[in-house]
């Protein structure tokens, strides 16, 4: 792997504001946006760092984006960071959602809002797919690891196997493939 | 919100959170069982609408539990359900994060971390695919999704551009 120039370390307010922004722009789910902001825009993490953190977040119980935010926060600012990042990530969207819920209770579905959200959702779906392609390109996984990733895509995305089975069923194969790849060096 | 509902939210979502390996949305069927079948708080259609609303809004997908909480207990219900779903596992994740820092550099930990990477990326791709299947109600949104995917993959411009374009296309044509 090529080592880029040293990566900046965020201050605590920076971490809070950045995660707040990730939450509020997180259409289609947090993970693709967190990668975009943390890896590409802020350069606090490498693609490998982010993907490893998210992978661990996925095998632990609980929302994976939340688990990842706690780990990223802890990495940079210990307990304070582990609180700041997820609180910011949830706080903004929660307020927005409360507003939406009130609006919804009062007016039901509004065609204009529905149309905007339908268009944004279609674009967000593409954004999530494009992120997966970009991560694969940047991470350059050896064939065995790539195969495990494709199995995860097929099982969860096409066959709709429940996620706990996908994660726990494929983890041993991923670990085996990584062991072979690391040992071969 | 009554005390009964408060405890039903705390215990119900708290228990679900503990088995939510793979993410909050992995346990959507369990949430359906709790909210629709066990407590009868809302109908099937209500459940689907709340889920669609949470998916369309930005933020962690798991926030849909906030909308379920809102439905039975207003703001307080929203906070209760969200915290019940997120707090117990957060302590676990924090504990794990500390353990990971202490063990960092060990060969087997690096193996495990690397081994989980393809699952993380594969599941991002899978969620994109599932979202796309939901939004591709005609050729236009399908094209929008495809263009957006290529734009995000091949360029370093902010994906907010494609979301903005999506909003415009949505208003004009959908």
Structure description:
The complex is a heterodimer of chains A (185) and B (174). Chain A has a domain at 12-110. The radius of gyration of chain A is 18 Å and the shape is globular. By secondary structure, chain A is mainly alpha-helical. In chain A, helix 1 (12-25) crosses helix 2 (30-41) and helix 1 crosses helix 4 (64-107). Chain A has seven helices and no strands. Chain B has a domain at 1-104. In chain B, 80% of the residues lie in helices and 0% in strands. In chain B, helix 6 (139-154) runs antiparallel to helix 7 (160-173). Chain B starts with a helix and ends with a helix. The interface between A and B is large, with 104 and 96 residues.
Global shape of chain B: flat
What's the main sheet of chain A like? Answer: none
Radius of gyration of chain A: 18 Å
CA-based gyration radius of chain B = 19 Å
Number of helices of chain A: 7
Q: What structural class do helix, strand and pairing data of chain A support?
A: mainly alpha
Distance between the termini of chain A: 12 Å
Instruction: Bin the strand percentage of chain B.
Output: under 5%
Please tell me the overall pLDDT of chain B.
91
- Envelope shape of chain A: globular
Poorly predicted runs of chain A? none
Strand content of chain A is under 5%
């Amino acid at each position: 792997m090529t080592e880029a120039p040293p990566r900046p370390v965020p201050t605590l307010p920076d971490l809070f504001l950045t995660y707040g922004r990730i939450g509020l722009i997180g259409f289609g789910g947090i993970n693709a946006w967190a990668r975009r902001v943390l890896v590409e825009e802020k350069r606090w993490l490498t693609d490998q760092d982010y993907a490893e953190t998210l992978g661990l977040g996925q095998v632990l119980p609980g929302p994976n984006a939340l688990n990842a935010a706690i780990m990223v926060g802890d990495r940079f600012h210990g307990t304070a960071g582990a609180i700041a990042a997820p609180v910011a990530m949830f706080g903004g969207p929660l307020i927005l959602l409360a507003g939406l819920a009130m609006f919804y209770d009062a007016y039901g579905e509004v065609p204009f809002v529905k149309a905007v959200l339908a268009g944004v959702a279609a674009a967000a779906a593409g954004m999530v797919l494009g992120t997966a392609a970009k991560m694969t390109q940047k991470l350059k996984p050896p064939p065995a690891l790539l195969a495990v990733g494709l199995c995860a895509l097929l099982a969860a995305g096409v066959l709709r196997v429940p996620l706990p089975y996908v994660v726990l069923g494929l983890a041993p194969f991923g670990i085996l493939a990584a062991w072979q790849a690391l040992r071969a060096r | 919100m009554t005390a009964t509902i408060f405890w039903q939210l705390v215990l119900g979502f708290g228990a679900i959170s503990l088995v939510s390996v793979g993410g909050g949305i992995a346990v959507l069927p369990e949430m359906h069982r709790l909210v629709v079948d066990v407590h009868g708080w809302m109908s099937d259609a209500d459940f689907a609408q709340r889920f669609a609303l949470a998916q369309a809004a930005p933020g962690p997908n798991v926030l849909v539990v906030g909308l379920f909480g809102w439905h039975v207990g207003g703001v307080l219900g929203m906070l209760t359900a969200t915290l019940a779903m997120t707090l117990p596992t957060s302590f676990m994740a924090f504990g794990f994060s500390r353990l990971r820092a202490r063990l960092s550099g060990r060969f087997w930990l690096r193996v495990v971390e690397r081994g989980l990477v393809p699952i993380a990326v594969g599941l991002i791709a899978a969620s994109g695919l599932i979202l796309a299947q939901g939004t591709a109600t005609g050729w236009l949104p399908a094209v929008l999704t495809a263009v957006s995917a290529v734009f995000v993959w091949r360029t370093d411009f902010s994906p907010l551009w494609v979301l903005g374009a999506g909003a415009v296309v949505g208003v004009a044509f959908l």
